[in-house]
From TrEMBL:
Record keywords: Cell shape, Cell wall biogenesis/degradation, Chaperone, Cytoplasm, RNA-binding
Biological source species: Candidatus Neomicrothrix parvicella RN1
This protein's record includes keyword Disulfide bond: no
Protein name per UniProt: RNA-binding protein KhpB
UniProt comment concerning the protein's domains: Has an N-terminal Jag-N domain and 2 RNA-binding domains (KH and R3H).
Phylogenetic placement of the source organism: Bacteria, Bacillati, Actinomycetota, Acidimicrobiia, Acidimicrobiales
Family designation: Belongs to the KhpB RNA-binding protein family.
Subunit structure: Forms a complex with KhpA.
């Protein structure tokens, strides 16, 4: 994993820029402070904050932690067979992923865009067991080989198949492997309820899948995992790309900047890329942490 270096007026600003550039949640990044900002007695910035960041390697939980987790009872049995489709009145994945309309904002107005999956990854986010995930890259068993991408794909597919069967859904799972990146797709009927409002349930399922991967990766792993349910991520990306492009064209025609609603780093990157593909506009981000938002302005 290669490091990138960025600067900002504050550590938080530099960190947010790094997350946008890497296109990951804060929980998936490793950040080191190289230089703190210095300010004169009159409040002027004398030197910028400087950090380096990379996509964090993933390691298995420590042995003691696994013992604590495993002390609650006997082995659980995986549900056999495929369940029946759940008949739910919930939204479909395409309805959940749709980007809302927006209006120009004269002074940090909100456009009603979705907060995005990245907005739910706050600082200090903890894994499903309530304990911060170990992302130091240190394997729990030094003698074990690191978990490979095909092994991660097989493990996560088996877990998701059992999870969705237990929830009453008949699904199929497929994996796409690209270097150290594994993307598992789950398809089936009536899966809108498993996506949830603005992808909240899908985000939770991704975190569960990562926890399973960490538990099984006794030798650690550098694999990055993604889970897509019913094509939600593809639909959401397409909606955000269309959303960002439409707003950029409005800004180019009107000459008035637009300040969007705060959203996560992954969604911001999609909007940045889509808007910057339109001639006559430029984008930047303002705010910090969960309040960080995209600004589209005429160039």
């Amino acid at each position: 994993m290669e490091w990138i270096e960025l600067t900002g007026k504050t550590i938080d600003e530099a960190r947010d820029l790094a997350l946008e550039k890497l296109g990951v949640h804060e929980s998936e990044a490793e950040v080191e402070v190289l230089e703190h900002p210095s300010v004169s007695m009159f409040g002027r910035v004398k030197s910028m904050a400087r950090i380096r960041a990379r996509v964090a390697p993933v390691a298995a939980p420590a042995k003691e932690e696994r013992r604590r987790r495993g002390g609650s009872g006997g082995d659980s049995k995986r549900s056999g067979g495929r369940g029946q489709d759940r008949k739910s009145g919930g939204n479909t994945a395409s309805e959940t992923a749709a980007a809302p309309s927006a209006a120009p904002a004269s002074d940090k107005g909100q456009d009603g865009s979705p907060s995005g999956e990245g907005a739910q990854a706050s600082r200090g986010q903890r894994s499903g067991g309530g304990r911060r995930q170990d992302r130091s890259g240190t394997p729990s068993d030094p003698s074990a080989a690191p978990m490979t991408a095909p092994e991660v794909a097989s493990t996560v597919e088996a877990f998701l198949g059992g999870l969705f069967t237990a929830a009453g859904h008949t699904v199929s799972t497929t994996s796409e492997i690209d270097g150290d990146r594994v993307d598992v797709s789950v398809t089936g009927d009536g899966l809108g309820v498993m996506v949830g409002h603005r992808g909240a349930t899908a985000d939770a399922i991704l975190e569960l899948s990562k926890a399973v991967m960490l538990k099984e990766a006794k030798g650690g792993t550098e694999v990055r995992l993604g889970v897509d349910i019913a094509g939600y991520k593809v639909l959401r990306r397409e909606a955000l790309e269309s959303f960002g492009g439409d707003l950029a064209r409005q800004v180019a025609e009107s000459g008035e900047p637009m300040v969007l609603e705060s959203m996560g780093s992954i969604d911001r990157k999609i909007v940045h890329d889509a808007a910057n593909a339109v001639d006559g506009v430029s984008t930047e981000s303002e705010g910090q942490g969960r309040d960080r938002r995209v600004v589209i302005k005429p160039s």
